[in-house]
Amino acid sequence: MSATSLPTPYLRLDLAKAQASIEAMAARARALGVGLRPHAKTHKSVRLGRLQLEAGAVGLTVATVGEAEVFAAGGCADLFIAYPLWVDAPKARRLAAVLERASVAVGVDSTASLDAMAAHGIRPEVVVEVDSGHHRSGVSPEAAGEIGRYAADAGFVVRGVFTFPGHSYTPQTRASAAADEAIALAVAAESLAGQGIAASVRSGGSTPSAQFAVGSGGGGLTELRPGVYLFGDAQQVELGTCAMEDVALTVVATVVSHAGGRVILDAGSKALGADRAPWASGYGRLAEAPDARIVALSEHHATVEWSGGRLPQLGSRVLVVPNHVCNTVNLADVYVIGDGPEAWPVDARGCNS
Amino acid sequence: MSATSLPTPYLRLDLAKAQASIEAMAARARALGVGLRPHAKTHKSVRLGRLQLEAGAVGLTVATVGEAEVFAAGGCADLFIAYPLWVDAPKARRLAAVLERASVAVGVDSTASLDAMAAHGIRPEVVVEVDSGHHRSGVSPEAAGEIGRYAADAGFVVRGVFTFPGHSYTPQTRASAAADEAIALAVAAESLAGQGIAASVRSGGSTPSAQFAVGSGGGGLTELRPGVYLFGDAQQVELGTCAMEDVALTVVATVVSHAGGRVILDAGSKALGADRAPWASGYGRLAEAPDARIVALSEHHATVEWSGGRLPQLGSRVLVVPNHVCNTVNLADVYVIGDGPEAWPVDARGCNS
């Protein structure tokens, strides 16, 4: 329970736990012999990004030009926009401005996106995105060479290939997704090599697959891009990626009602986010009540079925572990450090374009 | 398709459509003989709240003290916090400040919450919350009198009773939820009357149930609190509450990839919200492609299965209709009016405590 009287719901960051997770993933990357490039869309915080860089990260990953602007302005000199960016004239101007203060590589999965960048006179280093089984964006690994050749002919430097093994987000597929990722990146790098282009980077990674990632020694990754690991969340707990006691970020909520013999909290989807994977046990978890389940979520209500024991009293505060922390953070303006009053800004909150 | 070159994703508001829906609901309330008190948590906009008041709304509903602060500062003189508020010392001070500039009634569903307000020296008008079948917060209708008596004895003015018929949010239960609502409010008012307290207000309403609401003439509601109706969203379209062409708020997104023969958009859960009801056909809809379905959603990707015809070309813009517009609005800083450049602030964005 939090001792603070800050208005709930708010984000509470246990910095010691986050630091431990930052160091553990850095050690994992060293053991694998790969560069660690954490995805900063999770935390959107310049200060947390700095902690990752100080622990040995080679740079940061971002999802949007808006995030790149914030992190470049915050002094991060090496960014990768791991996204198949579509650049029109205004976005080209913004990206050009970021390129003046930082090294920025950009994801591509179409020749049209390369044409668009070239048409606007902008040629960042590019990384070809391939689909390793998540079936979102990215070309097939065998087609990486074709995109790479087109890019090189159009005057782009091709850094290598990347994938997001998002199909690691089920309890059964963490290891197999990591295997798919390694194979896809190897095939993609070979496809590039067939066009005379050396893939200096084979970039993959997600928090659930990181434990099973294949390093460059095994012909797999040269770079890892996990995001959620520094905080953890209910999804990661239920996937088995972290223990509940390792979760660094919680939402402090107040018990506002005992209607129906349940616990109603003032943290709803506008504080937690509405994510719920098919395999999730609820809309989030309670850090200090492992058997309780959030069975319903409205914008300002979490309905909790308490399992045994007395209900926490009206007006008391509990720590909610959100399902998917990236969306939770994007809903808040600040992290309260421990019980406060120190607070760190969510610098790139809302910078999603 | 939008002609603007604003960076996507962003909120696009068709003001003429919103105004038509504002007027239609005002007419509905007049026909029912009930006061209309729209829920401003949907739009969080002082200007849109003013349009509702100009169309005849008796006041606005809000969910949090933070929203009450914004709307009171914006000149709205009559607010109802339709939430079982827990008031500690800092919140009591904030609420007292709002009470100096506006009439503010507060929801209650426990004697403890009344004790907490009294302990902090604050006694707003209260409205007893009852559960009409949604099973979230609120006491049973039969218990309203007990709470009301406790409140009156503690020096509170009891305005009446309220409920949220949230079980109206399925395609089959819109009418039955409205019937439940009317019965619950009548029983609750009778329970109050048994304690010698006249319920001058019996407040209910949601957008899906509004069409079926029972007015005061039938012994039902005296006040209606729908929220979503002024914008509409994919949930409302699929519930049958509005037609796709009536939807006033969309998220403008760019086609960034054709991976896998599908359409990948740059509007993900950080722009749309992650809501998906069990009966929803996807993670949102496309305004101008009725057969397309958003089959997967990540933070920055919507994966769209296109049904027949050519895919929209890379770099083109489409209008996404989010599933649940309240969460969508809370993710944005501004509404772009039509194709811009005029933009209205989401004044209470993030004011969720």
UniProtKB/TrEMBL annotation, chains A, B:
Q: Molecular function (GO) terms listed?
A: D-serine ammonia-lyase activity
Task: Tell me where in this chain the D-serine dehydratase-like domain is found.
Answer: 248-339
**Membrane-spanning intervals of the chain:** none
Give the signal sequence positions: none
Pfam families named among the record's database cross-references: Ala_racemase_N, D-ser_dehydrat
Source domain of life:
Bacteria
The question of whether Lyase is a record keyword is answered with yes
Protein's GO biological process: D-serine catabolic process
InterPro entries in the record: Ala_racemase_N (IPR001608), D-amino_acid_metab_enzyme (IPR051466), D-ser_dehydrat-like_dom (IPR026956), D-ser_dehydrat-like_sf (IPR042208), PLP-binding_barrel (IPR029066)
Which keywords does this Swiss-Prot/TrEMBL entry list?
Lyase
Asked if Lipid metabolism is a keyword of the record, the answer is: no
Q: Which SMART domains match?
A: D-ser_dehydrat (SM01119)
Please report which protein family the annotation says this sequence is part of. Belongs to the DSD1 family.
What protein does this entry describe?
Alanine racemase
State the species of origin.
Answer: Candidatus Phosphoribacter hodrii
